[in-house]
Amino acid sequence: MKLEFKKSISNKIIYTLGVLFIFLFLLGYFLPIGIDKVKNLSYSQFFFSSYTVATQLGFLLFSFVIAYFINKEYSNKNILFYKLIGDNIFTFFYKKVAVLFFECLVFIILSITIISIIYSDFSHYLLLIILFSLVILQYILVVGTISMVSPNILISLGISIVYWIGSVILVAINKNIFGIVAPFEASNTMYRAIEKILNNESTFICPTEIINTVSFFVLLLIVNTIVLLLSRKRWLKIGM
């Protein structure tokens, strides 16, 4: 893990993530002011706007840095190095996922804490940390899994964008059937539930939404495991 943190620093991944989160929350602040002409942006409006940016533009914001961090090491000489230090395709992948998620979590906690201090409001503090963390974890796992399909970063980005657009279309067609494909999508029921909670119109997230979200991550982990298992032969071949 220490090696992956060093690689994140040397490859400027951690700094890029910091800039992306600053940009995300700045968009969350300025979009309601610029588009909706909101004069006094409230705590709930700011965070719901930022949550909207994270769910609607997250793939565009974070796909490249995630794919780059994984694809950069997914080459002949690097895989040979990882094999020599005892890593297999699973440890290689999940160490990178863990580092990316930890760094994102730190920036999420810092951002939400600072904004909550500014507003002097911590009413949805833990919920916001969990929500933003799950949204980002989704991107890390999806883009990361796609990056293991191909060592070419452009192909990984292309497939990621196709997945993102496809999932949005499927949820728009029928959220009851395809809602599990993109639980955080704006046209899905989870999005409206979060809006009501942040506006204090509701207290709890519906159990159905929680089940759908858990099911999504379970399904995602199953797909990820299958992809990694199928990639083992290529991992061994590339590292020779």
TrEMBL record:
<feature type="transmembrane region" description="Helical">
    <location>
        <begin position="210"/>
        <end position="230"/>
    </location>
</feature>
<keyword id="KW-0812">Transmembrane</keyword>
<feature type="transmembrane region" description="Helical">
    <location>
        <begin position="153"/>
        <end position="173"/>
    </location>
</feature>
<feature type="transmembrane region" description="Helical">
    <location>
        <begin position="51"/>
        <end position="70"/>
    </location>
</feature>
<keyword id="KW-0472">Membrane</keyword>
<keyword id="KW-1133">Transmembrane helix</keyword>
<feature type="transmembrane region" description="Helical">
    <location>
        <begin position="12"/>
        <end position="31"/>
    </location>
</feature>
<feature type="transmembrane region" description="Helical">
    <location>
        <begin position="97"/>
        <end position="119"/>
    </location>
</feature>
<feature type="transmembrane region" description="Helical">
    <location>
        <begin position="125"/>
        <end position="146"/>
    </location>
</feature>
<protein>
    <submittedName>
        <fullName>Peptide ABC transporter permease</fullName>
    </submittedName>
</protein>
